[in-house]
Specification:
Pfam families: AP_endonuc_2. This is TIM barrel protein. By secondary structure, this protein is α/β, with parallel strands linked by helices. The chain has a single domain, classed as TIM Barrel. The protein contains eleven helices and eight strands. An eight-stranded parallel β-barrel has the order 1-2-3-4-5-6-7-8, surrounded by five helices. Helix 2 runs parallel beside helix 4 and helix 6 crosses helix 7. The protein is globular.
């Protein structure tokens, strides 16, 4: 059965792709994702601002594709700043929120700060996240705060959750990324105290080695060497993560955030097909509780 058939689309309805995985112009990315049977797309700001015919043309292309926008990424290094640096990032945030709203996104992803100028004071971080969330309210956008595994002060999911709890805004929640969970070795029980209704986005990927031994290796792996779920060496851990989230009651979107230099050199349909296989494995194998056999690393295409 062709992956774009109705049956395949239903089975992978909770899964989508990030545009950052694919090479080429925005319209080609959207067409490849749609043809592979996906119904949603996670947009990167550079796809919108980098369109040769401008932001309005990019937004029109997204809307014409028929794909639902999973979210918009990414606001970096926002929280914990003061003075003119804080004012600068507030201005950037306003523009990011406006673009997210124009593109049809309901979620803006914000990553924990890596700036050496950012305070680690939890009250200051929560105050800034609260301000960010309030800026997004008029646009009916939720903010998903994600702990980067190389974040300066917040680099694990339970730390991000503590900041979200202290900020206490209805439209502020968590973004969870499997890569960062595995890179820091954060145990699954760190998720136990999180309200699943406050998880606004889950991004999934794997990688080809067991651990990242230095911060630079962690960054390089994240930005260049991720693979789709089921293609790397953390398949069991990834299946356990998705199963845990499902058992907690998470019913939101999963998006494949796969930064991979090799995939940037492959035809779009080939990369989208790999993503489709991954979605089928997760939707039918993991979430339907029929786990793959031990050692079964290659994914089966639906027939």
């Amino acid at each position: 059965m062709h992956p774009s058939s109705k049956h395949a689309a239903v089975r992978i309805a909770d899964f989508g792709m990030d545009t950052i995985t694919l090479a080429g112009p925005l319209e080609a990315k959207l067409a490849a994702v749609r043809a592979a049977g996906f119904g949603q797309i996670m947009l990167a700001a550079r796809d919108i601002v980098g369109h040769p015919h401008g932001v309005e043309a990019a937004v029109a292309a997204v809307k014409a594709s028929g794909l639902r926008v999973t979210g918009f990424q990414v606001l970096r290094d926002f929280e914990g700043l003061s003075g003119h640096l804080h004012g600068y990032k507030v201005d950037i945030a306003k523009q990011m929120i406006a673009m997210a709203g124009a593109s049809g996104a309901k979620v803006l992803l914000a990553c924990s700060s890596t700036s050496q100028h950012a305070s680690g004071d939890l009250a200051a971080i929560a105050r800034d996240l609260r301000k960010l969330a309030m800026l997004a309210v008029p646009h009916q956008i939720k903010v998903a705060y994600e702990g980067l595994s190389w974040g300066r002060h917040i680099n694990e999911v339970h730390q991000a959750w503590a900041a979200v709890q202290q900020a206490d805004c209805p439209n502020l929640g968590l973004g969870i990324d499997s890569y960062h969970q595995f890179a820091t070795g954060t145990p699954l029980y760190a998720l136990d105290d999180i309200d699943p209704a406050k998880i606004f986005l889950v991004q999934l990927s794997d990688f080809m080695w067991q651990e990242t031994r230095t911060e630079q290796e962690r960054i390089d792996t994240a930005r260049h060497f991720r693979v789709f779920p089921g293609e790397g060496v953390h398949s069991d851990a990834l299946a356990a993560l998705v199963t845990r989230l499902d058992a907690m009651g998470y019913r939101g979107d999963y998006s494949f955030e796969v930064f991979n230099d090799d995939y940037q050199q492959l035809p779009l349909p080939a990369v989208a097909a790999r993503a489709h296989d991954s979605a089928v494995w997760l939707a039918e194998g993991v979430l339907r509780r029929s786990l793959p056999l031990p050692g079964q690393s290659r994914l089966r295409r639906a027939t």
